Amino acid sequence: MEAYKSFIEKTLNEAKQLIDERIQEFTVETKANANDLVTNVDRLVEAYFVNQIQLNFPKDHIIGEEGMASPPKDLSGTVWIIDPIDGTMNFVHQQKHFAISIGVLVDGKPVLGYVLDVHENDLYSAEAGKGARLNGTLLKKKQSTPLNEAVIAFDHSFFDLQPSINDIRSKVRGIRMMGVGAIELAYVAAGKLDGFVTAKINPWDYAGAAVLVQETDVELTQLSGEPLNYVNQSDLWCGNVQNKEQLWKKTSL
User: Fold this and answer.
1) What is the reported pTM?
2) Which residues fall in the annotated binding site for Mg(2+)?
3) For a Cys-Cys bond, which of 40, 84, 126, 210 suits 45, CB 3.0-4.6 Å?
4) Rounded distance, CA 58 to CA 142, Å?
């Protein structure tokens, strides 16, 4: 994995430069709806990663949010899962709170994960069995938190399942909504949040953070408790929070 890690860190730095050079001048389009944005920078960064991976690891397969590579039929072998800009709406409106997310799976199991908070220049990285790090510093294992002491991040889609935000507010210490799943998951791994929950998330949004949370002993599953499959859109829970089901127990999933 050393060749992979060196390559990812080098390519992430180069991708960050591409973004920094264009952060004040970009074009925006919509995809599925008016809130589903994509920019020329998303596509440029993904195309750059795809080209570099194909040059350096030609036998590997690639899944990217913007479809710049032909996705594999399954997850056998080595598969890269890429989100060139997670949090595109934040990128467009704030020029911060967005990330590059890179996950590497071998036969369906996450082995490497990287989340780069571009604005803060914070690099979250992890290798299976070797711990998770923030800018090179080893992260501590995460302990369990009582629900009423927990700060939980939510994606807006969760409130389609559980519409009463006031009911949730009464059960937790605090609620956050950042709009960038990769960073929210990385924050849970780093102890900056206690949990993250969403009703709808794609594999490229969580693949880069999967090893991070696993290496800090944080639970990462569907709301049903079933494992994530890294193929389909699903709901997601991440955190070590006691009685977490109280956040969604009124909803029939």
Assistant:
1) 0.94
2) 65, 83, 85-86, 205
3) 84
4) 37
